[in-house]
Automatic annotation (TrEMBL), chain A:
A single MF term (Gene Ontology): monoatomic ion transmembrane transporter activity
Intracellular or extracellular location(s): Cell membrane
Keywords, alphabetical: Cell membrane, Membrane, Transmembrane, Transmembrane helix
Gene Ontology cellular component list: plasma membrane
Membrane topology (UniProt): Multi-pass membrane protein
Domain of life: Bacteria
Species name: Streptomyces misionensis
Pfam families cross-referenced by the UniProt entry: MrpF_PhaF
Protein name as catalogued: Multisubunit sodium/proton antiporter, MrpF subunit
Record-annotated membrane-spanning stretches: 32-49, 61-80, 92-112, 119-140
Main location: membrane
Automatic annotation (TrEMBL), chain B:
Transmembrane segments: 6-23, 30-47, 53-72
Subcellular location(s) of the protein: Cell membrane
Domain of life of the native organism: Bacteria
UniProtKB keywords: Cell membrane, Membrane, Transmembrane, Transmembrane helix
GO cellular component: a single term: plasma membrane
Predominant subcellular localization, coarse grouping: membrane
Sequence ranges assigned to domain MrpA C-terminal/MbhD in this UniProt record: 11-77
Natural source organism: Streptomyces misionensis
This protein's name: DUF4040 domain-containing protein
Membrane topology annotation: Multi-pass membrane protein
């Protein structure tokens, strides 16, 4: 087992267990936040796994997750807005911490790949991950309330 | 030692699946289902089947919760209309 897979295991265990605990307990608002953070916690793990197995094509999974994860969260923000009325689900400290961790992982994998098209792809994934996560968190906390009716 | 990551993924999937069954509210079930979809995709990746993981990611993380949530909303609206008619 090399260091990349070890890091992925630690990230998977920590992030996955925390997300699972958050999504199964507590009020609906907390569950939605935990579901949102699942994407941000597991996408870097997929990147680390791709690097650890030495298979650049596995990066596609992380790309798809970074693209679709926020979409899933937006679905919940839109369809659960009656339940979330009045409470503003947000955990900004956690959100920024997870986003920073994703950025660190992307930077580390970028440094390992070296310049080229693969690095551009990794940077796109990082931008999608951090941007999508912040947008989804804002949508959950009710920043786009005008768009959410109906 | 590569089995450690497989074990972690398996345990997480088992935990998430059990939790999804144990929830009572369909909306909360959909939230757990979405997490389960992502975890299953990770498990497939760890087992060296990323093509299965790709489709699982699209279906499990977005499509299934969307279908469940749309049905829940429709049923809630129908129930409310019926209550209003009485």
């Amino acid at each position: 087992m090399n260091g990349w897979v070890l890091a992925a295991t630690v990230e998977l265990a920590g992030g996955g267990a925390a997300a699972l605990w958050g999504v199964t307990t507590g009020p609906t608002a907390r569950r939605v936040v935990a579901q949102n953070l699942t994407t941000a916690a597991l996408c870097p793990a997929l990147l680390l796994l791709a690097q650890g197995y030495g298979r650049p094509s596995y990066v596609d999974l992380a790309l798809l997750l970074a693209l679709l994860g926020p979409v899933g969260t937006l679905v919940f923000a839109r369809l659960l807005h009656e339940d979330l009325e009045g409470q503003r689900p947000s955990a900004w400290g956690l959100t920024y911490a997870v986003a920073a961790m994703g950025a660190v992982v992307v930077a580390a994998v970028c440094a390992a790949t070296g310049p080229g098209r693969a690095m551009v792809k990794l940077l796109v994934i990082g931008a999608l991950l951090v941007g999508g996560n912040l947008i989804a968190s804002r949508a959950l906390s009710g920043a786009f309330r005008g768009v959410r009716g109906g | 030692m590569d089995e450690a990551v497989i074990l972690v993924a398996l345990l997480l999937v088992a935990g998430a699946a059990t939790a999804a069954v144990a929830q009572r509210d369909p909306a909360r079930q959909a939230l757990v289902l979405s997490v389960l979809g992502v975890l299953l995709a990770v498990l497939f990746t760890v087992l060296q089947a990323p093509d299965v993981g790709l489709s699982q990611l699209a279906v499990g993380a977005v499509l299934t919760p969307l279908l469940v949530m749309l049905s829940v909303r429709k049923i809630r609206r129908r129930g409310r209309d019926r209550d209003g008619a009485r």
